Fold this protein.
Amino acid sequence: MFDTPCPPAMWCQTSLTLGAHVSFREKSTWVMLVLIVGVYGAYFASILGLFGDAPILATVAYRPLMVLTVVVLVAASVVMHIVVALTTPTAEHGGDERDRLVERKGESIGGAVLGVATLFAIGLACLEVDHFWIANGLLAGLVLAEVVSRTSQIVSYRYGV
């Protein structure tokens, strides 16, 4: 079953190993995708009560936890980018035209998702929904936009722009 050659030629080139042939920017994209999903996944799981007893959402002190989540994400991304930078040859750090095109395409797609999510949050504000839902709706929209953007960039790196 696994002895056959790769059906499409590109499949052989799309392994998920992040070895020396992967650019600094692609490694950075992977790092940010994993951190965003992990850190914000933990935030939303804790807010929704998936860790322990389910709290009543109106009484959750979400603001300090939201700020702490952002601080943790920034600190973890700095540390991980230092590790990636130390393990990547210096010549690859600048990126090239392909890296800029991949980033621009991913950010464009993520921006569209963020625009729709923002309209949703504005709708919540117009309906005078509790601030908890508006703030977390905006944050969820931002996280979704970043995940879509980073995923789009990874797909572009792996399968071409």
Remarks:
- The CA atoms of residues 47 and 62 lie 7 Å apart.
- The mean pLDDT is 82.
- The radius of gyration is 19 Å.
- The helical segments are 9-12, 24-47, 62-86, 97-126, 131-159.
